[in-house]
Amino acid sequence: MAHSQQTAPFDYVIFGATGDLTMRKLLPALYNQLRIGHVPEEARIIGTARSSLSRDEYIIRAREALETFLPEQHKDAELIERFLKKVHYVTLDGTKSDHNWDDLKAVLDQSPADRIRVFYYSTAPQLFEAISENLHRFGFITPQSRVVLEKPIGTDSASAKAINDGVSRFFDEKQIFRIDHYLGKETVQDIIALRFANPIFNAIWSAEHIQSIQITAAETVGVEGRAAYYDTSGALRDMIQNHLLQVLSLCAMEAPADLEADTVRDAKVNVLKALRPIPEDKVASETVRAQYVKGEMKGKPVPGYLEELGEDSHTETYAAMRAYIDTPRWKGVPFYIRTAKRSTKKVSEVIVTFRKSASSLFGASAASNRLVIRLQPDEGFGLALNIKNPSAAGFDLQHGAMSGKFAPADGSLIPDSYERLMLDAVRGYPALFIRRDEVEAAWAWVEPTLKTWAANKVPMAHYAAGSYGPEEARRFIATTGDSWHEDMAD
């Protein structure tokens, strides 16, 4: 995915600029890109939101956000002031055609007409079409414009199609950048490097040598301030349909001919389209859904999901699915995808379990090799190999571990995923964004499960807050002879 790090002058217009995402992620990301020299001096950031604020009042909020969310080693008082001089604010309801659009025009008109404009929709997706229509109505969309769409792109296939159709009325597909911040993670991109830059893995990356692949994203937090959103979404929509299916596609795709955007996305969408459908009568055996109940974390009691929500709900906080990819490379190999709230630890990782050696030389003492790709935290990889147990009287084996870090050679911090993605939109480089056919293929695969769960045709399991998940998930994975990574003997 090599391309120039230089960017032309741009105007970044953020809708929803007073929201948590803008303050926690977007402004710090743009600041860090300025810090390392990727943002030109002429660039501007224009925040818009319904909140009635002056520019000075917004600057105060932006400064507080940088002080709060930037790593200490990245804070530079002089640079922060230089960054804030680029920040503007317009009070604007993007869905209303009679609301302060002249004020936005006055700011944009200060730049050359051919300047790159990025419109970032950090809003609810049902607002995307209306904002796009108003941008078109007032002549703000130019050939040099791009639009960044935050997830979720819909709640099912029909709503995703409606959102995509609505935005596509005003923007060409090449101008639309559907963001999935997982793809911006440097460690997720390392899956491509590990697979295709290392012959030792590339040569054995198939059903002939791989027994199974697990993809896990677990969090220790509950729903907290996102309860209203989360209860309409759930774990399957929130994490599996987008983030984890993207990780799966990188793990399973065929080698692209090059690292150009559509070449990589073609390879990914081929995987998503090859996912074996899970019909309604198989959902109970191929999936697990669960809610956390009260438990204990770090010695302190933790309430259950329903207690936090304050009402009854059939929304899952844990989801696990078994996927098969019907291609020659992956014939018969199960991919296990799971996500959880209130897990015992925060971790995102890929576990590749290789088949045991067919040799009878060492008998039952030879265990499976495992490759662990840690996406976060403690970003890096580990490889479990069979070595001789030096304390054994005979020639018994034990697992020995090799490990490495995904860390910059200069010792600096791994960049936040939004840093790369925000400027890739400026550059017009869409490889790490989701193409429309990827969205559609992902929804097509998960939707039968969503419908079956919504009809309560699969029992809701339960697990204690602070645990790895429900006992049902252990029985589920055992039906194909596997175990979750935390249950494997080292």
The CATH superfamily of the largest domain is: Dihydrodipicolinate Reductase, domain 2
Spans of 5+ residues with little confidence (pLDDT < 50)? Answer: none
Would you identify the CATH architecture of the largest domain? 2-Layer Sandwich
The name CATH uses for the topology of the largest domain is: Dihydrodipicolinate Reductase, domain 2
Number of helices: 16
Return Rg in Å.
24 Å
**Relative helix content:** 25-40%
Number of strands: 17
Query: Approximately how much beta-strand content do the residues carry?
Result: 15-25%
Number of domains: 2
Which structural category fits the helices and strands? alpha/beta
Shape: globular
Biggest sheet descriptor? 9 strands, mixed
- Strand adjacency order, main sheet: 16-15-14-13-7-12-11-8-17
The end-to-end span amounts to: 36 Å
Mean of residue pLDDT values: 92
CATH class (first level) name of the largest domain: Alpha Beta
Enzyme class: oxidoreductase
EC number: 1.1.1.49
Domain Glucose-6-phosphate dehydrogenase NAD-binding: 13-189
Pathway: Carbohydrate degradation; pentose phosphate pathway; D-ribulose 5-phosphate from D-glucose 6-phosphate (oxidative stage): step 1/3
Please, could you describe this protein's structure?
The chain is α/β, with parallel strands linked by helices. The chain folds into two domains: 10-150, 3-Layer(aba) Sandwich (Rossmann fold), CATH 3.40.50; 183-412 and 436-487, 2-Layer Sandwich (Dihydrodipicolinate Reductase, domain 2). The protein is built from 16 helices and 17 strands. The strands form three sheets. Strands 16-15-14-13-7-12-11-8-17 form a nine-stranded mixed sheet, with helices on both faces. Strands 3-2-1-4-5-6 form a six-stranded parallel sheet. It has a two-stranded antiparallel ribbon with strand order 9-10. The radius of gyration is 24 Å and the shape is globular. The chain starts with 9 loop residues before the first strand and ends in a 12-residue tail after the last helix. Residues 13-189 form the Glucose-6-phosphate dehydrogenase NAD-binding domain. Its EC number is 1.1.1.49. Substrate binds at residues 181, 185, 219, 238, 341, 346.
